[in-house]
Amino acid sequence: MKTIKQFLATDQQSWSLLVSRLALGIVILPHGMQKALGLFGGYGFSGTIGAFQSMGMPYLIGVLVILAEFVGAIGIIFGLGTRFMAFSVGLTMAGAAFLGGHINNGFFMNWFGMQKGEGIEYFILVVGLAIALLIGGSGKFSFDNLISKKIS
């Protein structure tokens, strides 16, 4: 029980962790909704898996990516398993930056369609927020805090 309590421990008064948590979750969730549900012009679960497999990604890894971006983002927003969810999102985005070829497109996002693809600046921000939450925890107004208080 002590290990779970330590995993959930956070500065329960931290507004900066709350803001980081909400920013990361709100930015990642629509991407997860595209992949899991087909919303916002996405392919949905089976279409996304098919697209990933056509790129050589194993089925299980595709499922884990979808879970990280959809379930992980929801967990981050509500502060439920924040450290694990932030690790999952951070790992997924780091993988996308390197394995998805974004690192080959330079630093900047493709704002004006002049590059062959998106650069890595978005990924740096997402991974940075994920690392901050991994280190600091969930901050104010989180389920992690409620669960931690219940564990003796």
From TrEMBL:
Lineage: Bacteria, Pseudomonadati, Bacteroidota, Bacteroidia, Bacteroidales
Alphabetically ordered keywords of this record: Cell membrane, Membrane, Transmembrane, Transmembrane helix
Statement: the UniProt record of this protein carries the keyword Acetylation: no
Keyword Transmembrane: yes
Membrane topology: Multi-pass membrane protein
Localization per record: Cell membrane
Organism (species): Paludibacter propionicigenes (strain DSM 17365 / JCM 13257 / WB4)
Family annotation (PANTHER family): INNER MEMBRANE PROTEIN YPHA-RELATED (PTHR33452:SF1), OXIDOREDUCTASE CATD-RELATED (PTHR33452)
GO cellular component, one term: plasma membrane
Stretches that traverse the bilayer: 59-78, 85-103, 123-143
A Pfam family annotated for this UniProt entry: DoxX
Top-level lineage group: Bacteria
Record-given protein name: DoxX family protein
InterPro entries the record matches: DoxX (IPR032808), DoxX-like_oxidoreductase (IPR051907)
Similarity-based family: Belongs to the DoxX family.
